[in-house]
UniProtKB/TrEMBL annotation:
Domain of life: Bacteria
PANTHER family registered for this protein in UniProt: 3'(2'),5'-BISPHOSPHATE NUCLEOTIDASE 1
Recorded name of the encoding gene: cysQ
Cofactor field: Mg(2+)
Reactions accelerated catalytically: adenosine 3',5'-bisphosphate + H2O = AMP + phosphate
Location of this chain's protein in the cell: Cell inner membrane
Name used for this protein in its record: 3'(2'),5'-bisphosphate nucleotidase CysQ
Topology versus the membrane: Peripheral membrane protein
Positions that bind Mg(2+) 1: E68, D88, L90
UniProt cross-references to CDD domains, sorted A to Z: CysQ
EC supergroup of this enzyme: hydrolase
Keywords associated with the record: Cell inner membrane, Cell membrane, Hydrolase, Magnesium, Membrane, Metal-binding
Length: 274
């Protein structure tokens, strides 16, 4: 992967983040619309989309952009794409509306169904996570860059600390609770932190959490960018059959349920698939 390209993508994500913050900080409140699928969309989602779509389309000749905020091309068209950009201009719109800061800008480059480069920007924290195949993963916090990697589970447990699990604030809580009980039985104490958006995958990437079980629906733009970061940091994202999660393989844009795993050398499969 091209390091210069990743830098350009980081700049685009941060510019979109600034446009989102302008809306976020407006004192008069937000104009919230409801989309066809009942999910909320704000002026911030649309402003970020308007910045990112043309900027990405200009980066690589002939590589299209698929956005949560644009019309989904039929699968007989997009199924032909060898590579494409996939973006979620504002992931965690519910958290944006609740004003808790847990929302992200997401850009991924997908090649042959694999997210090979990703940038996740967190506007309120001014933190950017980035990574790519052969580029490693890193975090930029207030301008300072640090390499990140996911952590080893055995070492973490041996040091007396609980297994740390991240989960959605809004979706799939009952199934995650049942799983927590199984993990607790096998590995001892578990700490669960609830959080919005793709930030959860980034916490696994940077070794601040061990597992993110997603036992509720998401779309491919919700996960592609952060999956690239997780995998560049040494983790994996597997589906409900324990296969690495892949993109653009079918007519609809929904992901299977999935697990984000920081330490692939631990045999999570029996525990997760019960
Ligand atoms: N029924 C559904 N189908 C598809 N995606 C869904 C969904 N319910 C929630 N999501 C996705 O879950 C994301 C929020 O996840 P979380 O609860 O972890 O914050 C939403 O992102 P958006 O905010 O971009 O719409 C949305 O894409
Ligand atoms: Mg989303």
């Amino acid at each position: 992967m091209d390091k210069a390209l990743l830098e350009q993508v980081i700049t685009i994500a941060q510019q979109a983040g600034e446009a989102i913050l302008e809306v976020y900080q407006r004192s008069e409140g937000m104009d919230i619309q409801t989309k066809q699928d009942d999910s909320p969309v704000t002026a911030a989602d649309l402003a970020a989309h308007a910045i990112m779509e043309p900027a990405l389309a200009a980066l690589l000749d002939g590589v299209p952009v698929l956005s949560e905020e644009s019309k989904l091309p039929p699968f007989d068209v997009r199924g032909q794409w060898q590579s494409y950009w996939i973006i979620d201009p504002l992931d965690g719109t519910k958290e944006f509306i609740k004003r808790n800061g847990e929302f992200t800008v997401n850009i991924a480059l997908v090649e042959d169904g694999i997210p090979v480069m990703g940038v996740v920007h967190v506007p309120v924290l001014n933190i950017t996570y980035a990574g790519g195949r052969d580029l490693g993963a890193f975090k930029i916090a207030d301008g300072t860059r640090t390499a990140i990697s996911s952590r080893k589970l055995a070492q973490h447990i041996d040091s007396g600390k609980p297994v740390e699990v991240v989960a959605s604030r809004s979706h799939g809580a009952d199934a995650v609770d049942a799983l927590m009980n199984r993990i607790q039985g096998a590995l001892g104490p578990v700490d669960t932190k609830n959080m919005g958006s793709s930030l959860k995958l980034c916490l696994v990437a940077e070794g601040a959490a061990d597992l993110y079980p997603r036992l509720a629906l998401t779309s491919e733009w919700d996960t592609a960018a952060a999956q690239a970061v997780v995998e560049a940091a040494g983790g994996i994202v597997v589906d409900d059959k324990f296969q690495l999660m892949r993109y653009n393989t079918k007519e609809d844009i929904l992901n299977p349920f999935f697990y984000v795993i920081g330490d692939p050398s631990y045999d999570w499969k029996p525990l997760l698939l019960g």
